[in-house]
Amino acid sequence: MLTLEGAEIAQGGFRLTAELSVPEGARVAVMGPSGAGKSTLLGAIAGFLPLTRGRILWQGQRIDTLAPAARPLSILFQDHNLFPHLSLFDNVALGLDPSLRLDPAQRQAVLTALDETGLSGLEDRKPAQLSGGQIGRAGLARVLLRARPLILLDEPFAALGPALKRQMLALVGRIAGETGATLLMITHDPEDARLLSDQILVVAEGQASPPAPTGALLEDPPPALAAYLGT
Amino acid sequence: MTRPAPALLKGAAALVAAALVLLNLGALGAVAWRAEGGAGWGAADWAALRFTLWQAFLSAVFSVALAIPVARALARRRFPGRGALIVLMGAPFILPVLVAVIGLLAVMGRNGLLNDLLALAGLPRLSIYGLQGVVLAHVFFNLPLAVRLLLQGWARVPGEHLRLSAALGFGARARFRHVEGPMLARVVPGALAVVFLICLTSFAVALTLGGGPRATTLELAIYQAFRFDFDLGRAAMLAAVQAGIGLAALLLLARLTLPEGRIAGLDRDAPPPPGGLSKVTDALAIGASALFLLVPLAMVLIRGLPWLSDLSAGVWWAALRSVATAALSTALLGVFAGVLTLMALTRRWPEALGMAALTASPLVIGTGLFLIVNPWVDPAHLALPVTALVNAAMALPFALRALLPAARRAEADFARLSASLGLSMAAHARLVLWPRLRRPAGFALGLGAALSMGDLGVIVLFAQTGGETLPMQMHRLMGAYRSGESAGAAVLLLALSLGAFVALERIVGGRHADT
Amino acid sequence: MRYPTLAAGLFMASAMAAQAQAPVLHVLTYDSFVAEWGPGPQIEAAFEADCGCDLQFAAPGDAAAMLSRLLLEGARTDVDVVVGLDTNLIAQAGPLMAPHGVETALDLPIAWDDPLFLPYDWSWFAFVYDTTRLATPPASFRELIDSDLSVVIQDPRSSTPGLGLLMWVKAAYGDEAAAIWQGLAPRILTVTPGWSEAYGLFLEGEADMVLSYTTSPAYHIIAEGDATKAAARFDEGHYLQVEVASIVASTDQPELARQFMAFLASDAAQAILPETNWMYPAVLPESGLAEGFQGLIRPEPSLLLSADEALTLRDPALAEWREALAQ
């Protein structure tokens, strides 16, 4: 279970508070108006923004004091998920060993992850030689390989077309299913939320609300979400 | 994102910082400490100060303004020999002053090619002597540097942005406003400051082409205080004023420097460049700058080549010593620049410290070190290491200018990813920073080697007979009526400097280091 | 006391091998003296042939650099003999020196009886021109002022010839010096930091005349077989550059130092100087001068300010010069 206890992130004039918990294995869509602080919330959980108050716990253990890589999670950003000068293989392999000194078993694991994400045969390509979908898959291959219990997605597929995005979400679902990971995913699209998530976490007006069941929330959205969804 | 620096790096940074502070402040302090009595600041000093600032300002503005069209043309056009042209056009910057001035005079002097052409056309002859000559020579030296610095700015414009502007049908003005302008706003202040600082300590050029005491710079006043008045207090005071101006310029630069943008691409290739009129202006920019920079070089070659086979063994030995000094200097530069670049990702002081060498008077550094070393060791024994150390410090500002923007960019783009994957400082440096920094690092080290090769600074104070370097030997030949052999030595020096530059840039930088 | 670093060691190896146990005579001089084509190597070989010692030159630049090195090192200096100061610089060095003790009669155009500084060569400052480009050179500063010629001179603040010209004008014109400089200003193409740059500009054809020495043409005649360079004779007379050697009072080799001074005034050393330093020998050797020196101008009168006068006049003269040329 991921718990945010009296958490507060303040940046300049901006303030976001969160008092919530996410059960293990849940798939949560993070929604809310643009600029409400969705990325800020994920950034704080991932360790890129310090808390000004409160704590973040995973399975009862405090994680907000840990370095980003030491936290039990993988994160995919909107962009810059791959190093342009490294090959696809190396980019994914970084998930296993940050100094890229792999033993044969690890190399095999990387190849397997590439295979499972439909990237076989592209190992030697640089990101510039990959399509948008392949870049998305590469990020997911690394998430799969890291097998952390918590996956944070900061709209990594926002730039993809609807069909491609659905493919990616399906892949995310499969990976989360295989690893039993808890998923937090920022999205603007209620369709994405229906497709993949069982709960929605609304971020609005400086507050991150506890997750509520997807169906119910979309049927009868609270005012802030309703205004955002335009319903 | 801050990542704690490992203890080893912190220790190295402390050592580098200590060495640089000793060089910059210690040397000045040693001179001031030995001074006796006070020193007045007279009307002539005001005049020298005014001229120093004015010529440095003009030189910086002209060098950078002229570099913009040249760098843009070179950045977006591909033609056979482009790489070689870029390297060759860099040569004036690494030439010893004397050689470059002679080359420049062969073209623009009273009997130069240009005036011969003007005379043929029935036009009046141009005079290179005076403020215009000083600025012209400084532009000759610094245009290549400005072009290189701006080229790196263009190289950092993501191919995606150029694609976008092509897709949106941007004309030259729109492209400048939305793509090139913002990039230039980041790169130009730094380039201006570097050229300004270089010209601030100008001495031989300003005097030789300045036409007389009107063109007195502070550095000349320092020289006079040392050599003829033996007034160390006055030398220290003038050097402090000079350093103060330099530091003020650096502070101004720090305020003007904009943060690197957060938007980057995936190193995709740029789209084909615009055609039409811009093709013509690009060709003109490249052609004119190549003529301006390369014809004087060609004159140096033409005059010196026939003498190359007549050079005595002493000259060749001096060349060997220069190569050894340059090698040591380059190694030191690599350590200094590497450590300071890593530290500068999270702090501001390493950059300021690294740039500080530009503000110091070479003469004061040399004399100060001499005073520090002399009571303990025969300075002649330290000629090589001290020269290498000073040369490394002198090249450091250029190295940092090349490395830091690229490093900060890489950090802005990838520090989060690196941290989320748990890359250690060493792995981050090896896997993320180095591939992004190879190219500027190759340039920086090549430049350091070449500058060290042509340096005629502190070595003169320290070297004893039998320890001459090639520039010293060349200067001596010239001082002994042997202008022919001196021209031959100049060709050798030019070849060594350029060779070192090209070799290091290729070996360290790789051909296509970051794609 | 030696602390050879590994790197410096490479460079020092040859010097150290030659050192053995023989007493060492440290001679401070200017750099063109020790160049392989300069007098240094021959002087060293000739002196070491029978002194049973090791003569070591140090050359930190030109004559002014040499003086500032000496003053910087002060009492700690290990220099025994200084070779190459000229009369404009010796006033500052005087307090550091000991009598040279050489009694040899000198062939100088002026009387010389300084107990501390021993002349070893000399020449007159003069404007050198190219006879193919200039048929009738000016015969005085005033003629130069009235001509449309261009000259290159050296900066008196950074070079000894430049300082020499300053003293020349002062010695010839006294209180009128400022007016002469004002008249010369339009004729001066540029002012260079040192002799090399000025002479280089002249050889490039940038200027019609350059401030150098009456003996400069001898180099072109003897070494290059080129008789087109000549020095212009000025009616006011020409200022002398007298190069001197002296013993540093703190020397730990006083005997050897005196022996070297005597050697410097001897035929053996004096015969070497004209065609390596391109100056007149202070004592005419028995073999006389090479033919290339015979046709040179021998101007009269010879001008020379005493060391003390030169020092006193320097700052006011510099101010005059700067004032006149800065307009």
TrEMBL record, chain A:
The chain positions of domain ABC transporter read: 2-230
Q: GO MF terms on file?
A: ATP binding; ATP hydrolysis activity
- SUPFAM superfamilies per record: P-loop containing nucleoside triphosphate hydrolases
Kindly give the InterPro entries that the UniProt entry links to this protein. Answer: AAA+_ATPase, ABC_SmlMolc_Importer, ABC_transporter-like_ATP-bd, P-loop_NTPase
Q: Which Pfam families match?
A: ABC_tran
Name the keywords, alphabetized.
Answer: ATP-binding, Cell inner membrane, Cell membrane, Membrane, Nucleotide-binding, Translocase, Transport
Q: What domain of life is recorded for the organism?
A: Bacteria
PANTHER family registered for this protein in UniProt: SPERMIDINE/PUTRESCINE IMPORT ATP-BINDING PROTEIN POTA (PTHR42781), THIAMINE IMPORT ATP-BINDING PROTEIN THIQ (PTHR42781:SF1)
Recorded protein name is Thiamine ABC transporter ATP-binding protein
Naturally occurring in which organism (per UniProt)? Pararhodobacter aggregans
From TrEMBL, chain B:
Q: What is its main location?
A: membrane
Name recorded for this polypeptide: Thiamine/thiamine pyrophosphate ABC transporter permease ThiP
State the organism's lineage: Bacteria, Pseudomonadati, Pseudomonadota, Alphaproteobacteria, Rhodobacterales
Could you tell me which residue ranges the ABC transmembrane type-1 domain spans?
A: 49-253
Any idea where this protein resides?
A: Cell membrane
Membrane topology label:
Multi-pass membrane protein
Q: Which domain of life is it from?
A: Bacteria
Q: GO annotations under biological process?
A: transmembrane transport
Species assigned in the record? Pararhodobacter aggregans
Question: PROSITE patterns, per this entry?
Answer: ABC_TM1
* Gene Ontology cellular-component annotations: plasma membrane
In terms of InterPro entries, this protein maps to: MetI-like, MetI-like_sf
Keywords, A to Z? Cell membrane, Membrane, Transmembrane, Transmembrane helix, Transport
Automatic annotation (TrEMBL), chain C:
Q: Which domain of life is it from?
A: Bacteria
Q: Which InterPro entries match?
A: SBP, ThiB, ThiB-like
**Signal peptide segment:** 1-20
Q: Name one GO molecular function term.
A: thiamine pyrophosphate binding
Q: Where in the cell is it found?
A: Periplasm
* Record-level GO cellular component terms: outer membrane-bounded periplasmic space
Listed A to Z, the keywords are: Periplasm, Signal, Transport
GO BP annotations of the record are: thiamine transport
Q: Which CDD domains match?
A: PBP2_TbpA
Q: Please give the name of this protein.
A: Thiamine-binding periplasmic protein
User: Whose protein is this, by species?
Assistant: Pararhodobacter aggregans
Question: Lineage, please?
Answer: Bacteria, Pseudomonadati, Pseudomonadota, Alphaproteobacteria, Rhodobacterales
